[in-house]
Write a structure and sequence with these properties.
The complex is a heterodimer of chains A (about 280) and B (about 100).
Chain A (H helix, E strand, L loop, with lengths): L1 E7 L3 H12 L4 E4 L6 H5 L14 H14 L11 E4 L4 E5 L2 E10 L20 E2 L2 H4 L7 E6 L3 H10 L4 E6 L11 E3 L4 E6 L3 E6 L3 E3 L2 E5 L5 H4 L5 E2 L2 E2 L12 E3 L10 H22 L1
Parallel strand pairs in A: 1-2, 1-5, 5-16, 6-13, 7-8, 7-13, 8-9
Antiparallel strand pairs in A: 3-4, 4-5, 10-11, 11-12, 14-15
Helix pairs in contact in A: 1-7
Chain B lengths: L1 E3 L5 H7 L4 E6 L4 H16 L5 E6 L4 H6 L7 E6 L2 E7 L4 H9 L3
The chains are: A alpha/beta (about 280), B alpha/beta (about 100).
Chain lengths: ~280, ~100
């Protein structure tokens, strides 16, 4: 089944987009978490959200929750890996599963892992984000995986079956379930270097000569989430209607720029929803 | 239509065509490649007669994929007179790919 609008993110921008899309009688799916937003529940006091003087973040969260429950809006607690603009619809990938929507609203906030120096420059020239996709291209070569979470270990084990040598750089603490032929390097990566291709990873106190580097993160920049999405620095480029450069793709909240504030986010979510509704009406 | 191209006919295909030649480097195990395939088919239909469209399976054709140093797939290359004019790595929306190709038509 194809949804009218898929909303990615359950902070104030995503929730406001959801309620306004629902009011306009659109068939929506909202991706996010039961906590809505880690920033929201951590806020000790909010005094600049109109109508709610002296409220804590978790109290505000409870109000938001009441609101979407009354409107019968559910949250799909799944992590979207990639969104592909197929032309007249969007394919949203969750591991092996796929959702389809005619329009999307990106409201993912601003907390994503910043790229390493050289990472963007060498993307596709030795740097990749999908180890399982590109591993066979590194048969018999030296590969380095920078892993930000446990899932990366599984990918490392798979790649180690094909690569000549695999270095694993964990960016988290814990015990690692890795095959015996993988060399774990406990050091902080600083920069990716090369000529026309990657050849070296510089770490704080060492260097690794490598043919390929996979950076496997928890959360990626919006331009990785939606390939082809135009950015302006760290933020998604939008116009006053919250349109992005991709037809049918809208964005709202912190991911579109500063100031990072609840009311701005909620306002933009509303504009994005109404723009998405207008877009859907135009293609019918 | 997007046709298959192989190591054997790769060099003459990209050199002998008077039109831009678009090659989509892909493999069966690559998810984004699967998503890109129908997009490329649509573009090929829309630009029929103005450019030639091919796909090359990197598993079965190591010579061409090594020569053009394919390190991530999907990779789309635009050739004219045997030279690489554009390289796109990773999935891209249809309009972005189409306008890039149209620059060379």
């Amino acid at each position: 089944m194809r949804y009218d609008i898929a909303i990615i993110g359950t902070g104030p921008a995503g929730l406001s987009a959801a309620i306004n899309s629902k009011i306009r009688n659109k068939n929506i799916i909202l991706f996010g978490s039961k906590d809505f937003s880690s920033k929201l529940i951590k806020a000790p006091k909010v005094n600049n959200y109109l109508g709610f003087y002296d409220i804590t973040g978790s109290e505000l969260k409870a109000q938001f929750e009441k609101h979407i429950n009354v409107m019968d809006i559910g949250i799909t607690n799944e992590r979207i890996n990639n969104i592909y603009a197929m032309g007249d619809y969007f394919a949203l990938m969750v591991n092996e599963k796929m959702y389809e929507a005619n329009a999307i609203i990106v409201a993912t906030g601003i907390e994503y892992t910043k790229p390493l120096k050289g990472e963007e420059e060498f993307l596709g020239k030795g740097v990749g984000y999908c180890a399982t996709c590109d591993a066979p291209l590194y048969k018999g070569k030296v590969v380095t995986i920078i892993g930000y979470n446990r899932d990366a270990e599984e990918e490392a084990n798979y790649v180690s079956e094909l690569a000549e040598k695999l270095y694993y750089i964990p960016m988290y603490n814990g015990s690692y379930k890795l095959r015996g032929n993988i060399e774990t390097v406990n050091d902080r990566p600083l920069e990716i270097q090369g000529d026309d291709r990657v050849n070296k990873l510089i770490l704080k106190s060492s260097e690794i000569n490598t043919d390929g580097i996979f950076v496997l993160k928890d959360s990626v920049a919006p331009s990785q989430l939606v390939p082809g999405l135009a950015m302006e620095g760290d933020h998604i480029k939008v116009d006053l209607d919250m349109k992005t450069n991709i037809k049918g793709c809208f964005a709202a909240g912190d991911c579109t720029g500063k100031p990072y504030q609840y009311m701005r986010a909620a306002g933009q979510g509303q504009v994005a929803a109404l723009s998405a509704v207008a877009y859907l009406d135009s293609i019918e | 239509m997007v046709r298959e191209i192989k190591d054997e006919n790769f060099p003459q295909t990209i050199e002998e065509s008077s039109m831009p030649v678009i090659v989509d480097f892909w493999a069966t195990w690559c998810g984004p490649c699967k998503m890109l395939a129908p997009v490329m088919e649509e573009i090929a239909t829309e630009l029929d007669g103005k450019a030639q469209f091919f796909k090359l399976n990197v598993d079965e054709n190591p010579v061409a994929s090594t020569q053009y140093r394919i390190s991530s797939i999907p990779t789309i290359m635009v050739f004219k007179n045997g030279n690489v004019l554009e390289t796109l790595v990773g999935f891209r929306p249809k309009e972005a790919i189409k306008s890039l190709i149209e620059k060379h038509i």
